[in-house]
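Quarterly update, task 2.4: MU-OXO-diiron-bound model.
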Amino acid sequence: MQYGIPIVDGIYWVGNNDRRTALFESIWPIPRGVSYNSYLILDEKVVLIDAVKDLSLRGYLLRLKRLLGPDRQIDYLVVNHMEPDHSGAVPILKQMFPAMKIVGNKKTAQYLTKLHAIEDDIHLVADGEELDLGKRKLRFFMTPMVHWPETMMTYVIPSGILFSGDAFGGFGCLEGGIFDDEVDVQYFEDEILRYFSNIVGKYSPMVQNAIEKLGKTEVKIIGPTHGPIWRSNPAHIIDLYDRWSRHDAESGVVLAFGSMYGNTEVMADAVARGLSDAGLKTVRTHNVSTSHISYIIRDIWRYKGLVLGSPTYDAGVFPPMDALLRLLSTKRIAKRHVGVFGSHGWAGGAVKTLTKFVTDSGLDLVEPTIDANFRGSPEQIEQCHALGHAMVRRIRGAYQ
Ligand code: FEO
């Protein structure tokens, strides 16, 4: 095992993998773990860019010690983001390297105090400010709310490496390969979209601000705090982030439904058949009782069309569907065509709630809406099939 993997001469990846945590932020499943990327720059000044979670630190600290050798110390720790998956190890680093200054902005300083009781040796930087390391300089871009208020990015001159924090990163351990050209990039793109939609998506306007701010900066390599380093085609991941944060979507439909006794599922199958009959191959079906919401949100962020089906429960929607609607509202999903259907027994409520969600969210309601009593009539099942057709016509129309 190498002690640090060189990115370019004098700059190393020194991060670690988390194969122990089941739920990132105690919410989002990470079946293939997650990496916490940290980078060491050996110049006249020694700089660590971002730390790691306070978990499984043995390998991380060993890497740093071996790269530094017996005599060198860390001069600066740049904290691009204070969330504990990156700042958790800051207190122990402070103990190991007592002369180390922490580089951040005013908000970083506030959070260092409140999270870690660290108040001293903080080197404050502002937007556009630079820090001279000797052969290289660091330039700091303030990128608030991507993902917390203090978030910033660090650009290395002249290497052209952008250390971007959470932006452009995603779930999944780095299993030996750390660069985009060394890994299964499609897997990581899916997981980067899941990270984006689950965690950063609500702040899409701020992501757009960040992309605009980076505008004329020549980014040769992107080093995020999670997932692979983008060296072969950094423009590709910036382009994906740009599209995702504009809510631009691909041709396809997510069919998310709940069903207690199978009646709503029969309707969902009829919608699915309608989608297929209309020639659509990209259909992602989720039973909201069994699919983790993290994956449903990701697919909704990817595709233009959404069909929601729910039985009535306590005069409203089925609770797992209610959780999905709440999260979609919180994430401020936009620019989607949405169809709704559902069933009820003695009193309705689900379809009304679904329809209100669509109109209140400013989304495009695709007719017909179908509200079946128990298993629904043959005509209503036929309407579900027609909804599938109508959805395909709609996603092939607007927002292309
Ligand atoms: Fe990877 Fe917002 O922390």
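Highlight for this quarter: The mean pLDDT is 97.
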